[in-house]
TrEMBL record:
A Pfam short name: TauD
Species, as recorded: Phytophthora ramorum (Sudden oak death agent)
Keyword Protease: no
Family listed: Belongs to the TfdA dioxygenase family.
Any coiled-coil regions, as ranges: none
Keywords: Dioxygenase, Iron, Metal-binding, Oxidoreductase
Protein name from the UniProt record: TauD/TfdA-like domain-containing protein
Gene Ontology terms, MF aspect: 2-oxoglutarate-dependent dioxygenase activity; metal ion binding
The organism's taxonomic lineage, starting at the top: Eukaryota, Sar, Stramenopiles, Oomycota, Peronosporomycetes
Sequence ranges assigned to domain TauD/TfdA-like in this UniProt record: 79-160
Entry-linked InterPro entries: AtsK-like, TauD-like_sf, TauD/TfdA-like
Record carries keyword Zinc: no
A GO CC term attached to the entry: cytoplasm
Length: 176
């Protein structure tokens, strides 16, 4: 973990030294603007609860049931392979409207292409959770921020406040 950036011009010594937040810059050394987070119900918090170890769960690979021609998933979709072996973008489908056969084919496509992008989705958080549950039990990650009322949701947020909170949080755990 990187140390906190301490103001080198501060005359105070010890733990009361002034902390100066350095603006985040991009590769061109330009300051990055942080947009406000638009979903306050999903603001990340670091969990204080611990969970039992994950038991061994039965595994059901949905891709094994898929039609390898992708006739259900891709029939009405526009498909763009971003690179020859990895990455596909699919347009013209809404994830919350997929049938079970389409979900199985999506599992096979992700297994083959590594990552699949769907833009402009009109899908609620509950529908996203339902889609995830189709593939198996959802996991609660104990050491990263998640939405307060939905611990299965890992929040990816790029704001200065969250960056500072992350630096202040101790993520190290020892297992003895």
């Amino acid at each position: 973990m990187a140390p906190i950036n301490i103001d080198s011009t501060s005359t105070t010594a010890g733990p009361t030294a002034a902390v100066v937040v350095t603006p985040i810059k991009n590769a061109l050394n330009q300051e990055v603007e942080h947009a406000p987070f638009t979903h306050p119900e999903l603001l990340g918090e670091f969990p204080t609860k611990t969970y039992d170890p994950i038991p061994v769960l039965p595994y059901n690979d949905r891709a094994l049931k898929a039609d390898p021609s992708f006739k259900n998933l891709l029939a009405d979709a526009t498909v763009t392979h971003l690179e020859p072996k990895i990455g596909t973008e699919i347009s013209g489908l809404q994830l919350h409207e997929l049938t079970d056969a389409q979900k199985d084919e999506l599992a096979l496509l992700v297994a083959q292409r590594g990552v699949v992008f769907f833009r402009e989705q009109e899908i609620s958080i509950e529908q996203q959770l339902d889609l995830g549950r189709y593939y198996g039990p959802l996991h609660v990650h104990q050491t990263v921020a998640h939405a307060k009322s939905i611990p299965q949701v890992h929040v990816v947020e790029n704001s200065l406040e969250v960056s500072e909170k992350r630096l202040e949080t101790q993520l190290y755990r020892h297992f003895n």
